[in-house]
Amino acid sequence: MTTTVPLRLERLDERGSHDDLCLHLGAYSHTCDSYYLVIDEAPTASQSLGANLARLLEQWRDQVDELKGTGGTAYLPYDFSDQCTAWLCVTSADGREAEVSAGWSGVEGWSINPSNYVATAPKITDFKPLPDAQIECSLDDLSQCIAMNAEAHAASRD
User: Fold this and answer.
1) pTM, to two decimals
2) DSSP per position, 79-115
């Protein structure tokens, strides 16, 4: 039986690239910009913000799926700012259950291609979790939640 995971990256406004996204993690929420998703020029990027959000979330799911069975830690970015980035830290000791925490790193948003951030994620060594911004869930449920969020963005027309 699947349990609903209280995690969602949502688009608030379809006209701008500032304060137009919101990450929800349990009771925690954080408004951020899509700016670096919009200007991403990597070969893996799209001209569509919806497609770029879906691509970001597909990478999240791939990283979460890599933790299944073995455990470990994965970093999933959600806010790309000039001076820093915000990440979800997914930690699993047993490869089945996970703790997901929101926090910050000093890695600058301009130094990352959101459509292919996986090379940067292992370099996150300064992650600082935020108080009261974490949940616990199964990796299976987390993966399914992320996939549904990605599908919703892929279906958007922009």
Assistant:
1) 0.94
2) EE-SS-EEEEEEEESSSSEEEEEEEEES--GGG--GG
